[in-house]
């Protein structure tokens, strides 16, 4: 079933795009992370221009985050005070990211920068996840439990000026820390089309020291608004959002997330994290090979 993508200016198999969305939805449901960090690389592998892939993936993440936010909000798992500060930082970050995107686009370097960012970020995150999950599996086999981590914010956060009380997160810290974290994820969302959950969640736990029962819901709250703003920013500045592509991805991801959540209940969490780390590292390796491999046609026409 061929479908024409007006912004990408090419025809694709609609079922393949839905399948890509379903795959990332399954991963999202299984591992509790947004699938945006895999959606963009998979679309690039399929032949979608990186600029269109990144912009359209952000709109897909917006739709996929709505149900998650409502689910966590119903059980009181969202710190709106903390989330509001991070959303404010995300708005600033998307503005900075939009300027960087346009500058890199004018220089003709945006595609390679997107690929390099994915190689670096996925390689780092995948390595850390693999090490942590391997330690958990090893501890399970030997019967020696890992030492419990104390919930405490990073010393750098403690040294920042001003302090606010974030009651639901159980914190008394400077709002500058979540604001800067929001700025960073906003830039990444604009450049890479990711939700940022796989960066936000560890940072909220180990840097801000937030309570674990509000981390995922607050992360989704921030992702929802920042990806919404990112989509609008792309539509107004880069003109790279392909609504047909985004709808096909959303259809697949919504159904895939239901399948993934059922699989997650049947498989051990430690092994699931190890599998996710392996998938992330394989994607990073494939993108690295793509950067080094010389194409058959060096000069091609691609839409801006």
TrEMBL record:
<feature type="transmembrane region" description="Helical">
    <location>
        <begin position="110"/>
        <end position="130"/>
    </location>
</feature>
<comment type="similarity">
    <text>Belongs to the 4-toluene sulfonate uptake permease (TSUP) (TC 2.A.102) family.</text>
</comment>
<feature type="transmembrane region" description="Helical">
    <location>
        <begin position="44"/>
        <end position="71"/>
    </location>
</feature>
<dbReference type="InterPro" id="IPR051598">
    <property type="entry name" value="TSUP/Inactive_protease-like"/>
</dbReference>
<keyword id="KW-0472">Membrane</keyword>
<dbReference type="Pfam" id="PF01925">
    <property type="entry name" value="TauE"/>
</dbReference>
<feature type="transmembrane region" description="Helical">
    <location>
        <begin position="83"/>
        <end position="104"/>
    </location>
</feature>
<protein>
    <recommendedName>
        <fullName>Probable membrane transporter protein</fullName>
    </recommendedName>
</protein>
<keyword id="KW-1133">Transmembrane helix</keyword>
<feature type="transmembrane region" description="Helical">
    <location>
        <begin position="272"/>
        <end position="293"/>
    </location>
</feature>
<feature type="transmembrane region" description="Helical">
    <location>
        <begin position="205"/>
        <end position="228"/>
    </location>
</feature>
<feature type="transmembrane region" description="Helical">
    <location>
        <begin position="240"/>
        <end position="260"/>
    </location>
</feature>
<dbReference type="GO" id="GO:0005886">
    <property type="term" value="C:plasma membrane"/>
</dbReference>
<keyword id="KW-1003">Cell membrane</keyword>
<feature type="transmembrane region" description="Helical">
    <location>
        <begin position="171"/>
        <end position="199"/>
    </location>
</feature>
<feature type="transmembrane region" description="Helical">
    <location>
        <begin position="12"/>
        <end position="38"/>
    </location>
</feature>
<dbReference type="InterPro" id="IPR002781">
    <property type="entry name" value="TM_pro_TauE-like"/>
</dbReference>
<keyword id="KW-0812">Transmembrane</keyword>
């Amino acid at each position: 079933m061929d479908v024409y993508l007006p912004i990408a200016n090419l025809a694709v198999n609609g079922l393949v795009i839905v399948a890509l969305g379903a795959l990332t939805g399954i991963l999202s449901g299984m591992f509790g992370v947004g699938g945006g960090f895999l959606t963009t690389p998979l679309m690039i592998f399929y032949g979608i221009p990186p600029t269109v892939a990144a912009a359209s993936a952000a709109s897909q993440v917006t739709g996929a985050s709505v149900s998650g936010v409502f689910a966590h909000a119903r059980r009181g798992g969202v710190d709106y005070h903390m989330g509001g500060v991070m959303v404010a930082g995300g708005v600033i970050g998307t503005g900075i990211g939009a300027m960087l995107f346009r500058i890199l686009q004018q220089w003709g370097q945006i595609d390679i920068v997107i690929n390099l960012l994915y190689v670096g970020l996925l390689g780092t995150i995948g390595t850390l996840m693999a090490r942590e999950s391997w330690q958990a599996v090893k501890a399970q086999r030997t019967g020696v439990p890992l030492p419990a981590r104390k919930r405490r914010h990073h010393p750098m956060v403690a040294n920042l000026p001003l302090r606010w009380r974030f009651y639901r997160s159980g914190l008394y810290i400077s709002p500058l820390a979540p604001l800067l974290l929001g700025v960073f994820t906003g830039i990444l969302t604009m450049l890479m089309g990711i939700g940022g959950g796989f960066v936000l969640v560890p940072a909220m736990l180990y840097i801000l020291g937030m309570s674990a029962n509000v981390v995922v819901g607050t992360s989704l709250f921030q992702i929802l608004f920042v990806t919404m703003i990112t989509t609008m920013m792309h539509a107004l500045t880069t003109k790279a959002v392909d609504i047909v592509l985004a709808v096909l991805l959303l259809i697949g991801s919504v159904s895939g997330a239901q399948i993934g959540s059922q699989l997650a209940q049947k498989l051990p969490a430690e092994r699931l994290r190890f599998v996710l780390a392996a998938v992330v590292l394989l994607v990073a390796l494939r993108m690295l090979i793509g950067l080094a491999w010389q194409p058959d046609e060096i000069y091609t026409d691609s839409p801006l």
